[in-house]
UniProtKB/TrEMBL annotation:
Example of a GO biological process term: copper ion homeostasis
Regions crossing the membrane: 6-26
Coiled coil regions, renumbered to chain: 35-62
UniProt entry tagged with the keyword Metal-binding: no
Protein name: Copper transport outer membrane protein, MctB
Swiss-Prot/TrEMBL keywords: Coiled coil, Membrane, Transmembrane, Transmembrane helix
UniProt organism field: Alkaliphilus serpentinus
GO cellular component, as recorded: membrane
Tagged with keyword Magnesium: no
Annotated signal sequence range: none
Length: 295
């Protein structure tokens, strides 16, 4: 006779078997679902990648078109600049004086020459001008120079005399030999014809390095006394601008002479247009449009 315990054990085994089957079925279905989800995710990534590749190609095509337009615009601008400045400075001798710590003349010489002018004199003040040691000053004792103030004033005066009369005095000769001043000049041009205009390049990286009251303003004052017109210019990226000081000295200014527009403004100022031109707040006009319109 089969006992009750046998039935209970048999029923328990049946239910355990059913439960195990259900769990296995659920796991298999879950794994299939997981694989399908992964496949869908990969397909989504692939579609997005393909879409981004197409978008990238479109962007590259747009960039190439913009670069072509930029090249065309530059060619047109160069032609306009050439037409505006060509032969505008013919017959004029222009001196360039760089008092800035930046060791370049921003391509002014070549542009002035392309505009018909001549640059027979270029003067560069050294970056550490004014910081004269006692040893450096001793080189000038024979010339009766005993202090930094006297040496600065003597060099400024000799530079103005050089540009005005075409001769180098002894203090300037000594300053050039010690590389306090860098000079390039064609004395025969100055002897035959006077300097008609002086371009002073200023601006410094910080107010601490500013030389405007040490060099620029005294030079402007001396040139005014010798009736030689001066324009004060600088790059549009200088840290400390000299333009407000130049304006107080009542001379024309250009604060973006490193740009094509600034160079054309310079040509018009040298040609006789007065004003303060450039991009910064203290400039009155971007460009001498009225003068160009009158031409």
């Amino acid at each position: 006779m089969i006992s009750t315990r046998f039935y209970i054990i048999t029923i328990a085994i049946i239910f355990i078997s059913l439960g195990t089957g259900i769990l296995i079925g659920i796991n298999m279905n879950g794994q299939d679902l997981y694989l399908k989800q992964q496949q869908l995710l990969l397909e989504s990534f692939e579609n997005r990648y393909n879409q981004m590749a197409v978008e990238k190609e479109d962007f590259l095509n747009q960039i190439n078109l913009l670069l072509e337009e930029k090249d065309h615009s530059i060619q047109i601008l160069d032609h306009i600049i050439y037409e505006l400045s060509s032969s505008k400075l013919k017959g004029l001798n222009i001196a360039i004086i760089n008092t800035s710590e930046y060791e370049h003349s921003i391509g002014l010489k070549s542009f002035i020459e392309e505009s018909g002018g001549v640059v027979p004199i270029e003067v560069n003040y050294s970056k550490d001008f004014g910081k004269f040691t006692s040893e450096k000053l001793s080189d000038f004792l024979s010339l009766k120079i005993e202090s930094s103030k006297e040496l600065i004033e003597a060099i400024n005066k000799d530079i103005v005399d050089l540009i005005t009369y075409g001769k180098k005095n002894s203090v300037l000769e000594e300053a050039i030999s010690h590389n306090i001043i860098q000079y390039r000049g064609e004395n025969e041009v100055i002897t035959d014809e006077p300097i008609h205009f002086v371009v002073i390049i200023g601006g410094s990286s910080t107010i601490e390095k500013n030389h405007v009251e040490l060099i620029d303003l005294p030079l402007i004052d001396l040139f005014n006394k010798n009736v030689i017109p001066v324009v004060g210019v600088e790059s549009n990226d200088v840290g400390y601008s000299y333009i407000p000081h130049y304006k107080e000295a009542k001379i024309s200014t250009i604060d973006n002479v490193n740009t094509s527009i600034g160079k054309v403004s310079l040509v018009y100022v040298i040609s006789g247009v007065d004003g303060n031109f450039g991009e910064k707040d203290f400039s009155d006009h971007l460009f001498p449009m009225k003068a160009i319109g009158d031409n």
